[in-house]
Structures are given as C-alpha cells and as structure tokens.
Amino acid sequence: MSRNVLELHLSLLMLQRINSKSVQGPYFTVTIPDIHTVEYAEAGKVATIEIEGGMSRPGQVDWLVHARTFSGWLPPHESEEVTADKLKQILGNIGQALSMLGMPHRIVEP
C-alpha cells in the first residue's frame, strides 16, 4: 500500500460523523448548513465554500465544491493569510468529510 493511500485510510479513521450534516476531524469540523454551503472550522476560525448538487446518474447527486469561492477566514480572523498549501489541506479535509457523509463530490479548482 502506498504512503498516500495509507495516510488517507488513517485520516478517514480519525473522522467522526457527528450527525447527517457534520463531521469532526482531529482538529477541524466540516458542516453542511444548507445545500449551497460547506462550512469549515478549525482552531476557532471559520471559512465557507459554495457547493452545488448536480445529477450524474438518475437519482445520484454529485456535489461540486467550488474552490474559487473560498475567500479566507471569516471575521474576526479575516486578516490571517491562508497559504496555497493550507487551502489544499482544507479542501482535502472537506473532501474526506463529504465522503464520510455519503456525498459524492469533486473539487472544482479556479
């Protein structure tokens, strides 16, 4: 098993489904407050990203996560920079959480 696959399996084991809309990781929480938004929280900071559902097969919704709608942390942390590496980590955590919630998805890069 490759290192990346092993890391993915280990990270999925560290996730806990809180309810039908939320997943808790070791240092973050991902919540789907509505069908248009994913909320990412970490260390007291919160960010939102737009999502939308589309039909790929009859009865199957595939979610699109629009990475370009990430604009940083919400107030009062809006002045803290989010590096490209951090954004990649956030999107990865969101992807893992959506998988745990049974939401097939893909990240739409800017």
Textual characterization of the structure:
By secondary structure, the chain is α+β, with helices and mostly antiparallel strands. The protein has one domain (about 5-110). Helix content is about 25%, strand content about 40%. The protein contains 2 helices and 7 strands; from the N terminus they run H-E-E-E-E-E-E-H-E. The protein has helices spanning about 5-15, 85-100, and strands at about 15-20, 20-25, 30-35, 35-40, 45-55, 60-65, 105-110. Strand 2 and strand 3 form a beta hairpin. It is globular. The mean pLDDT is about 85.
Number of helices: 2
* Number of strand segments: 7
Mean pLDDT: 87
Order of helix and strand elements from N to C terminus: HEEEEEEHE
What class, by secondary structure content?
alpha+beta
Taken together, the total number of domains comes to 1
**Helical proportion?**
25-40%
Q: Which stretches of 5+ consecutive residues score pLDDT under 50?
A: none
Distance between the termini: 31 Å
> Sheet bearing the most strands, described?
7 strands, mixed
Explain briefly what this protein structure is.
With 110 residues, the chain is an alpha+beta fold.
Supply database-style keywords.
2 helices, alpha+beta, 110 residues, 7-stranded mixed sheet
Please specify the SSE layout and strand pairing.
Elements: H1 3-13, E1 16-19, E2 22-24, E3 28-34, E4 37-42, E5 45-57, E6 60-66, H2 84-100, E7 105-108
Parallel strand pairs: 6-7
Antiparallel strand pairs: 1-2, 2-3, 3-4, 4-5, 5-6
